[in-house]
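Inverse folding, one chain.
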């Protein structure tokens, strides 16, 4: 049987895809539409678990502004081909065709208006129409390359808990290490290493920072500019018991390495020093702390004054040098995180299978004919805001044209 059957039957398939997530199902449905016999294998009990967890259950399924500029990779050119051939508009068209209600939240981010389940249903429905066979709760124990395989014959044998299967094209769509509760594992990296492919060092990304001494600010949010390695993001940060979260912090984590500083401009739209000088010239006798309460959350101001400034002095009592120094801190606050929260909370995994090992057009391993890698398992990581789903759709589509 096809489409979700658990019936035990040993047949050969032209294409086996390991991983029934966004990239895997996208590849399966398009390969199936080409008339290919496709088997989609996943160790979880349901497909698309990470899709269901994303966007607070609403799935930020793409971004209207997706372009290569929003992706991080050791080879920044690698993603260009797939993204240009399967742009966001193509997936949006499919969402329209299925009558899924969606809305733009901000900055081109498109979310389901009802539930992320709508996207999973779309993908599963299209897979079923294309004759894709699902095998869920199916654990892969080993993969072997068959000797002497020729074009049109089986190249790989896949041993699973539901039997042994053979295929001509094997696609690895197992994702990265982030959100292990969704079933994430390092399986895809193990397969790559088995076949001699290089792995770019992995780390948790789109993740909160661990910063000590600020747990008393938990819950405080502020719109600011956060920078690392001259890459800046203007959105909110949110103080947590561990340190910093919120969109600007998560975005910055994509460029951060252990030991790096991050810089925070708490007042990016003004010259804080000049504003306070103007207040002084106007005759204000308020304390600097009370004046700053007009601009920033009170708890944050109080904390920074307690650590870095004599907050009891009125404005006329403060020297311009001391005032300028404190304002510089507010607009160039440097912190060195001890780390990120980790894979349990990270949206994605940075790094992965080295794109230099693959064709950017087909996603096929250059050294291993018939072996493909798509989605998050690759060293292509997008910004927060639907970009990583767009990479899943685009890379899955690209591989599906040739598997």
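Residues assigned per position:
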């Amino acid at each position: 049987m096809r489409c979700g059957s658990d019936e035990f039957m040993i047949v050969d398939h032209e294409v086996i895809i390991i991983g029934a997530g966004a990239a895997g199902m996208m590849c399966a449905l398009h390969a199936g539409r080409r008339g290919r016999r496709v088997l989609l294998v996943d160790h979880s009990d349901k497909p698309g678990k990470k899709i269901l967890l994303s966007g607070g259950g609403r799935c930020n399924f793409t971004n209207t502004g997706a372009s290569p500029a929003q992706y991080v990779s050791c080879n920044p050119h690698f993603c260009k081909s797939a993204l240009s051939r399967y742009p966001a508009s193509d997936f949006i068209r499919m969402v329209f065709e299925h009558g899924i209600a969606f809305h733009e939240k901000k900055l081109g981010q498109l979310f389901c208006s009802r539930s992320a389940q709508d996207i999973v249903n779309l993908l599963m429905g299209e897979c079923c129409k294309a004759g894709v066979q699902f095998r869920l709760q199916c654990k892969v124990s080993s993969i072997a390359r068959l000797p002497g395989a020729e074009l049109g014959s089986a190249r790989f044998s896949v041993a699973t808990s539901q039997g042994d299967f053979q295929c001509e094209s094997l696609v690895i769509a197992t994702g990265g290490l982030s959100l292990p509760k969704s079933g994430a594992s390092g399986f895809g990296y193990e397969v790559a290493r088995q076949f001699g492919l290089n792995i770019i060092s992995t780390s948790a990304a789109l993740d909160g920072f661990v910063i000590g001494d600020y747990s008393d600010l938990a819950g405080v949010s502020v719109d600011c500019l956060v920078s690392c390695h001259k890459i800046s993001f203007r959105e909110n940060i949110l103080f947590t018991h561990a340190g910093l979260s919120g969109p600007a912090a998560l975005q910055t984590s994509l460029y951060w390495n252990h030991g790096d500083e991050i810089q925070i401009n708490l007042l990016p739209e003004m010259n804080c020093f000049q504003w306070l000088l103007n207040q002084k010239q106007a005759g204000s006798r308020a304390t600097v702390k009370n004046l700053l309460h007009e601009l920033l959350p009170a708890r944050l101001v109080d904390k920074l004054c307690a650590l870095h400034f004599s907050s009891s002095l009125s404005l006329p009592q403060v020297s311009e040098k001391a005032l300028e120094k404190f304002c510089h801190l507010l607009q160039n606050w440097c912190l060195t995180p001890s780390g990120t929260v980790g894979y349990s909370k990270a949206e994605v995994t940075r790094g992965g299978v080295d794109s230099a090992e693959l064709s950017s057009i087909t996603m096929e391993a250059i050294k291993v004919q018939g072996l493909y890698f798509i989605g998050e398992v690759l060293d292509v990581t997008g910004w927060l805001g639907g970009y990583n789903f767009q990479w899943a759709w685009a890379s899955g589509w690209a591989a599906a044209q040739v598997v």
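The domain at 13-204+347-400 is CATH 3.50.50.60 (FAD/NAD(P)-binding domain). The first strand starts at residue 13 and ends at 18.
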